[in-house]
Amino acid sequence: MSRKITKRVEKIKSKMKDILIDKQSNDELDKEIDKINIKIGMTRYSDEELAMFKELILKKILEARETLDFYKDELNNEALILGDKISSMEEGGFSNRNEAFSQKIHRQEKFINNLENALIRIENKTYGICRLTGELIDKKRLLATPHATTSIDAKLNADKK
Description:
Blueprint: H1 3-20, H2 26-39, H3 47-82, H4 88-123, H5 139-144, H6 152-160
Helix pairs in contact: 3-4
């Protein structure tokens, strides 16, 4: 869908909210907006599906934070154990292990941040919509990679360019 059409749709939705806000509850308003989205070819995951994804993401965040804490503890423990006892021969090995843990910590923090951003998209009801095509990302992909923001096809096409 072109940006011009998308902007027009957003204006229509905004006007509709203003008109209906006094007459209907937010749930009813969301249903009306969903009907408009379906009519113009925009879709999203249902509230039930979003709740299921939210539960999955919260579980992943908990696991990721536990892993992050483990990496941080290991890095701190190794530094405490070796402390002043590091000889010049051991220093290189310690430095390599330290760098490896630092990289793991950085990757884990990035993963947690991506999962938290997915939670924001769930609250905005935009979760599972490909940021490149505007189409729904396959549910199997989201179950495997819940922080995904692009469909497999869009990702492959972007990687080719």
